[in-house]
Amino acid sequence: MLLLQEDPTGMSSPIATIAVIAVLVAAIVVGVRALWHNRKR
To answer: Which residue has better confidence, 2 or 10?
Structure first.
């Protein structure tokens, strides 16, 4: 519980780090797919 007291958001936990990376990768993939789809038209 010391970790929760030091970081109330919980963003320094490994699970949160993995989640943030996953969201960033997903956003990049969606952006690239949107640009690729618009380029073909």
So the answer is: 10
